């Protein structure tokens, strides 16, 4: 029964010398320091910090956020960057093609347009003709004629060779660059206002419904059942017809049913968490209802709510643009992205540049918000926590 | 189950009543006369119309009369957009082209959306998945009207492959269908993308579940496990999406109809609202609302059909 054998660290048996140490040389070891757990080498991470870390880990999300920030910044300062005002009309300079100082030397965005004119008229364009693209024959009711296709610098032709409209001008000669960013500003203000209202109303109503339950919940739920299924588009159109076009009626129309999605989500979360032990503990310790609701239960729902809000911003921009196509968008002198798009749509075949710049901005905006929303969802997802 | 259906129908009926009341009063509070004083309208005709709709009475009485007419399924006559034509006929006349457009695009959306969704879930985290996911995000982000403008300019104007606007033929002929391709495509891309995205997420989750292993263990082929077990389970959250597809397209087609010059229902509604043609507006809005509510009830019920585990009403034996 003598299996137990003391050995050296490397497995060799202890030498005789070590086994036969005289008792007088042995000594009891006493630890002078208190034994404690090893302190964590890693820093403690709060929930917010953790979310932030996962948020910035994805490159796509960072790019998307940067694009959003850029567009927001341009929405703020953009209209002032252009030498032209977004409201000044210049009837002599309508539908001027885009012309940007340095880029024009590359042969693009140089303020030229291909025109088809009668051969005899070519001379009247004088210096403005940049390039002769040959002639072709046409036959019309007036007989056959020879037409020339020429590339004309519209700025020289209109006698303003030193003027630059970076993104061109619209039907009444307003600068598209300034209008584009002014429109972005209007669209974004609208979208953020709608989302903020939906968020706050939805949070409060959802929290009350979910936390208190009972007849309050029942009545609000039945009301929401009724309002939720109203087809939003005809109603929106009617409201706008009633209150007139403008930012305020648009916000009202979008908020009418918009808060219900948030309210439903928040209500579900409150139902799920309100009977948990920690909520009970908080209540036992005398926390007020508001404190329990917003400090202890709400943080569970905040991730989904924020993600939902980020994803609904492009939806509002999209809807506003859709209404603008129907002539129900923002009021006339003030542009929005939708107004610019629908203006461009009207002259799509002749002046495609009108729709390109707002088109790019709206696509970038929607893309960036969708990608950032996805990034937020991943960042808030506790399953992905490390 | 029956109790649940009845509950839903009652809620839907309330919504319907609310919509009718709101639409009626919003329309009648709108600035502008219902009958303008244009000399075109004969005095006797004017008086006839006044008498028919009781325009001299207080609004609340007018409302009563209108409701009485509606109960008899008499939706009045269009006054300005299509003078003298019963509203019912205008709706039925304009409906086919809108329905054709919507349902053709739904027919495009369903198979493509599902195929892409399944493929992306099966080939998750491969090059194919990454590329398709990028395309899906792109398609969801590009508004349908921007896409429509792009197609109109490149495919229609520059390449001259398709006509720019819809042919005005009354019946669905080959040329008309040909001119409908662009609007159908413009309506479809977003739907395909959103279905593919949802299906991918759902299916990727289902594929990792234990019962998939069981299905494989009992000797089903991969295709069988995929179609019988994975697809059916991942379609549960999509059931309502499929139904709303028909409804959602119905409303988004408004702008597309405007761009491609489709003489559809939405365009008629805009004309009616702009022209203060109140009875036509009401008729169309009520029609939209009816379809919407019907779809909503159907969507709720469809959950129970697709997934037998979901028993509505909260009781076991129902």
Verbal overview:
- The complex is a heterodimer of chains A (386) and B (318).
- In chain A, 55% of the residues lie in helices and 8% in strands.
- Chain A has 12 helices and 3 strands.
- Chain A starts with 15 loop residues before the first helix and ends in a 6-residue tail after the last helix.
- Chain B has 318 residues and is mainly alpha-helical.
- Chain B has a domain at 95-273: MetI-like (MetI-like fold), CATH 1.10.3720.
- Chain B contains 12 helices and no strands.
- In chain B, 34% of the residues are buried.
- Chain A binds chain B through residues 222, 225-227, 229-235, 237-239, 241-242, 314, 318, 321-322, 325-326, 341, 344-345, 348-349, 352, 355, 359, 362-363, 366-367, 370-371, 374, and chain B through 11-12, 14-15, 18-19, 22-23, 26-27, 29-30, 137-138, 140-143, 145-146, 149-150, 152-153, 157, 164, 251-252, 254-255, 258-259, 269-270, 273, 281, 284-285, 288-289, 292-293, 296.
Write the CATH fold name of the largest domain in chain A: MetI-like fold
CATH superfamily of the domain at 95-273 in chain B: MetI-like
Mean pLDDT of chain B: 78
The count of helical stretches of chain B stands at 12
Q: Count structural domains of chain A.
A: 2
Determine the strand fraction of chain A and express it as a percent band. 5-15%
Low-confidence stretches of chain A: none
Total strands of chain B: the figure is 0
Fraction of residues in helix of chain A: 55-70%
Average pLDDT over all residues of chain A: 81
Biggest sheet details of chain A = 3 strands, antiparallel
Poorly predicted runs of chain B are: 312-318
Summed up:
The complex is a heterodimer of chains A (386) and B (318). Chain A is mainly alpha-helical and 386 residues long. Chain A has two domains: 251 residues, MetI-like (MetI-like fold, Orthogonal Bundle); 59 residues, no CATH class.
């Amino acid at each position: 029964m003598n299996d137990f054998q003391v050995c050296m660290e490397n497995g060799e048996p202890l030498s005789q010398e070590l086994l036969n140490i005289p008792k007088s040389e042995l000594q009891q070891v006493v630890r002078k320091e208190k034994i404690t757990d090893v302190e964590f080498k890693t820093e403690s991470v709060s929930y917010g910090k953790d979310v932030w870390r996962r948020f910035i880990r994805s490159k796509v999300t960072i790019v998307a956020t940067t694009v959003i920030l850029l567009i927001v910044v341009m929405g703020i300062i953009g209209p002032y960057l252009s030498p032209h005002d977004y409201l000044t009309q210049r009837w002599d300079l309508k539908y001027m093609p885009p012309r940007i100082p340095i880029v024009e030397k590359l042969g693009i965005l140089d303020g030229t347009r291909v025109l088809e004119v009668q051969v005899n008229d070519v001379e009247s364009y004088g210096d403005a003709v940049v390039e002769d693209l040959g002639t072709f024959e046409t036959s019309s009711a007036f007989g056959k004629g020879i037409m020339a296709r020429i590339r004309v610098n519209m700025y020289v032709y209109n006698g303003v060779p030193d003027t630059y409209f970076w993104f061109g001008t619209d039907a009444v000669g307003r600068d598209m660059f300034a209008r584009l960013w002014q429109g972005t500003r209007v669209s974004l203000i609208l979208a953020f206002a709608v989302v903020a209202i939906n968020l706050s109303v939805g949070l409060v109503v959802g929290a009350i419904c979910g936390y208190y339950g009972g007849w309050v919940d029942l009545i609000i739920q039945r009301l929401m059942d009724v309002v939720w299924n109203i087809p939003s588009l005809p109603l929106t159109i009617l409201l706008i017809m009633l209150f007139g076009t403008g930012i305020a009626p648009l916000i009202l129309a979008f908020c009418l049913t918009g808060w219900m999605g948030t309210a439903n989500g928040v209500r579900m979360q409150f139902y799920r968490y309100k009977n948990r032990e920690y909520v009970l503990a908080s209540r036992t310790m005398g926390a007020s209802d508001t404190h329990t609701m917003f400090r202890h239960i709400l943080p569970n729902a905040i991730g989904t709510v924020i993600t939902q809000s980020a994803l609904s911003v492009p939806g509002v921009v999209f809807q506003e643009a859709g209404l603008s196509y129907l002539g129900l968008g923002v009021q006339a002198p003030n542009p929005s992205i939708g107004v610019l798009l629908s203006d461009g749509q009207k002259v799509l075949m002749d002046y495609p540049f009108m729709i390109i710049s707002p088109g790019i901005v709206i696509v970038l905006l929607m893309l960036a918000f969708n990608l950032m929303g996805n990034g937020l969802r991943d960042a808030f997802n506790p399953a992905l926590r490390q | 189950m029956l109790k649940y259906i009845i509950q839903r129908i009652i809620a839907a009926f309330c919504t319907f009543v609310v919509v009718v009341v709101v639409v009626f009063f919003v329309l009648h509070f709108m600035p502008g006369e219902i009958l303008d004083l244009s000399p075109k309208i004969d005095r006797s005709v004017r008086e006839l119309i006044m008498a028919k709709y009781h325009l001299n009475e207080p609004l609340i009485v007018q409302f009563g009369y209108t409701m009485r007419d509606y109960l008899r399924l008499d939706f009045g006559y269009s006054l300005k957009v299509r003078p003298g034509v019963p509203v019912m006929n205008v709706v039925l006349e304009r409906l086919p082209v809108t329905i054709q457009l919507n349902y053709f695009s739904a027919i495009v959306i369903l198979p493509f959306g599902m195929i892409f969704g399944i493929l992306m879930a099966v080939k998750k985290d491969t090059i194919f998945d990454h590329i398709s996911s990028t395309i899906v995000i792109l398609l969801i982000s590009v508004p349908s009207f921007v896409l429509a403008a792009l197609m109109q300019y490149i495919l229609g104007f520059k390449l001259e492959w398709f006509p720019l606007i819809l042919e005005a033929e009354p019946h669905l002929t080959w040329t008309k269908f040909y001119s409908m391709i662009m609007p159908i495509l413009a309506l479809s891309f977003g739907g395909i993308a959103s279905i593919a995205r949802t299906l991918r997420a759902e299916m990727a989750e289902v594929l990792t579940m234990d019962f998939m292993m069981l299905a494989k263990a009992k000797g089903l082929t991969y295709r069988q496990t995929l179609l019988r077990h994975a697809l059916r389970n991942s379609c549960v959250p999509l059931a309502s999406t499929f139904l709303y597809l028909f409804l959602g397209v119905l409303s988004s087609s408004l702008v597309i109809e405007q761009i491609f010059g489709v003489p559809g229902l939405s365009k008629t509604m805009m004309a009616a609202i702009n022209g203060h043609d109140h009875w036509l507006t009401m008729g169309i809005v009520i029609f939209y609302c009816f379809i919407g509510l019907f779809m909503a009830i159907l969507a709720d019920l469809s959950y129970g059909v697709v997934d037998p585990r979901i028993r509505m009403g909260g009781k076991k034996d129902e």
